[in-house]
Amino acid sequence: MASAAIAAKKYCQKYSHQWETDPLLKGQSSALWCYQCVSTQPGCGTPFNWLWHWTKVCPEDDDVCVKIIEEKEGSQVITRDCLSSMQGLRTDIPADHYEGCRPAAVDVKLANYVNNSVKELDIYRNYYDTTTWCFCFLDHRCNNAITSHPSVSFPIAILLLTYQLL
């Protein structure tokens, strides 16, 4: 029995070291998986069809999944991605990145010294009436729903079922 425990310990020491040094495996344990799509693609709008879209591993260790909802006169554009992928493209990211939805930040420096008479260029980025950012990081592929997460609703459903049986 003792020899089996020693062999198991050596095996764990050998392969845990490989996990730390192998560049293909390093950093994959804490990575977050998020959907990456825009609502102009089929199945990415509301309702979301998860069968049509692949997930991507977010590049940063402390990354957050993002769902951006932009509305203009009844039409919506929904963008799903990792926060680190959006930081170089967007300047209206809210300062608070914790779970939940919040309005976009106002960028007072945007298009300050631009004199452009072509209104279709939208240099002020004020085309959309409302822009809402939704952040999530407590579950993989969490940027698919508006507010409910399967990890939260499943235990509640189990509790309700056990309460009904008692």
TrEMBL record:
The keyword Transferase does not apply. It holds the Pfam family QVR. GO terms for biological process: regulation of synaptic transmission, cholinergic; sleep. GO terms for cellular component: side of membrane. It is found in: Membrane. InterPro entries: QVR-like, Sleep_regulator, Snake_toxin-like_sf. It is a lipid-anchor; GPI-anchor. Keywords: Glycoprotein, GPI-anchor, Lipoprotein, Membrane, Signal, Transmembrane, Transmembrane helix. The keyword Signal applies. This is Protein quiver. It comes from Rhamnusium bicolor.
